[in-house]
Amino acid sequence: MNAPLAPARPSRISLAVRDSNTMLRRNLLHARRYPSMTLNLLLTPIMLLLLFVYIFGDVMSAGIGGGGADRSDYVAYIVPGLLLMTIGSTVIGAAISVSMDMTEGLIARFRTMAVYRGSLLIGHVVGSVLQVLASLVLVGAVAVAIGFRSTDATALEWLAAFGLLVLFALAMTWIAVGMGMASPNPEAASNMAMPLILLPLISSAFIPADTMPGWFQPIAEYQPFTPAIETLRGLLLGTEIGHNGWLAIVWCVGLTALGYRWSTALFNRDPR
Amino acid sequence: MTTTTSHSLAIAAKGLRKAYGDKTVLDGIDLAVPAGTVFALLGPNGAGKTTAVKILSTLIGADADDLHVGGHDLAADPQAVRAAIGVTGQFSAVDGLITGEENMLLMAGLHHLSRSEGRRVAAELLERFDLTEAAKKPASTYSGGMKRRLDIAMTLVGDPRIIFLDEPTTGLDPRSRHTMWGIIRELVTGGVTVFLTTQYLEEADELADRIAVLNDGRIAAEGTAKELKRLIPGGHVRLRFTDPAAYRSAATALREAARDDDALTLQIPSDGSQRELRAILDWLDTAGVTADELTVHTPDLDDVFFALTGDTTATHQPEETVR
């Protein structure tokens, strides 16, 4: 009726990129039109940052660096953890919006169109990672405003820190997308994704893992957040990274692969 | 010639089956829809209509199939089928968070139209479906009828040759329903094949070239509206009484009427024409019968199902149960 003949059939890859980009634009439009959800998710890390620094700061700082530390040392100590917590909390939005998509008729429309199958999920993942980066800039700005400074991090270390944040955001997003796919409705998705914001509380984000009860230390040390926090801390503040660097990368790659397999398996299942 | 036949068929299904666990939803149905025609799948809730649409539109797989849509094998080349079809499901498939126009542009993007072409097509369709004024408003604020129109407009962006409409008028008010009928008729004049499902005999009658009656996962009958109507028993006049004594005396006087002793009603077969009604009224007068309520009952879907399936659980008592 109105469309002209389609141009020469594009290759599979250019089709995939094009469709994913269209889906990404839709997600960014949602985020821009309804910023309140992203901002709500940002409240938790920012509140915790201010709470721990200004209310609990004097006591908390006494517990790090073998005494002698003051509040500004504690700001430096908790910012890396809060940046990673920001990732965990922002991706909850991805779980919710994936679940919203799956419960609406729109998903049936997408599935019956000749679009690249993975484009919907890829659009969500890339959109979520971009949202995470925007959130990190905001939380980072608050951190700098209350006195966070990195200690002589080189350009390469900054780059590595950025790479780690992106990798961690990717891993958390794929897990969140899987949670969104597995949930019957957006409320359930939001509940299911809660651990992503609770895990940092039992990591080395606020207090060193070796100050926790002995039986709990292995859990705190080897859960996904602690190695990433320790690595970021090392990159920005020059503390010892040790085996945490490798652990962080293994966690990121492993969670990305797991989340990807989980999400796509759920997506390719016949809908009821 | 089998080849030419299959070419002129937009939808060809043989032995379409689907079961969930031990519950058989579609029990081997055959469908043949010639290109450029409207085909209606008529049936009550739970008959398997939506499942048939879901399978034919590549949303879910069938258990055993020889299915071709737009000349493409559903199992072997679903993407080619998808490129040929447009689907408007039973549930609104619009993105409520963005505007009507943005929904249209999203479709244009997914159909790989250029930016200017996409804008042109979107504007044209919004205009055609009377949505230009609401184009800049979020789709979540649209009324049911507007959402359904946007839904169909989105389906048309890719210029599909075969369109599936799953209960396109369910939940619409009478005016929106007539608007929708007009839209569907317009589609057909453009040479598009339309496969629609409906619970309403009237709707199938209005729109479809051929109708298949689906009941309990099987095709109970198939044909043109005229052919199907021949299968339907005529209507009847129903007399309702409030006084049991009056009912009993009327029942004795009108021996030909079918009785329903519990409801105190009598049914007299009638085609609902003026002449027959007058004859019945004269007869009632001569017999001295005065009913509290007289209603003329024209054939409806219940009658079709009763006629086609002999389903005794239907609300109407068959004539043979006169006691």
From TrEMBL, chain A:
Keywords: Antibiotic resistance, Cell membrane, Membrane, Transmembrane, Transmembrane helix, Transport. InterPro entries: ABC2_TM, ABC2_TM_bact-type, ABC_2_transport, Nod_factor_ABC_transporter. It comes from the Bacteria. It is found in: Cell membrane; Membrane. The keyword Thylakoid does not apply. Its main location: membrane. Pfam families: ABC2_membrane (PF01061). Residues 36-270 form the ABC transmembrane type-2 domain. Belongs to the ABC-2 integral membrane protein family. This is Transport permease protein. It comes from Streptomyces viridiviolaceus.
Automatic annotation (TrEMBL), chain B:
Gene3D superfamilies: P-loop containing nucleotide triphosphate hydrolases. It is a peripheral membrane protein. Its main location: membrane. It comes from the Bacteria. One of its GO terms (molecular function) is ATP binding. Residues 11-241 form the ABC transporter domain. It is found in: Cell membrane. The keyword ATP-binding applies. This is ATP-binding cassette domain-containing protein.
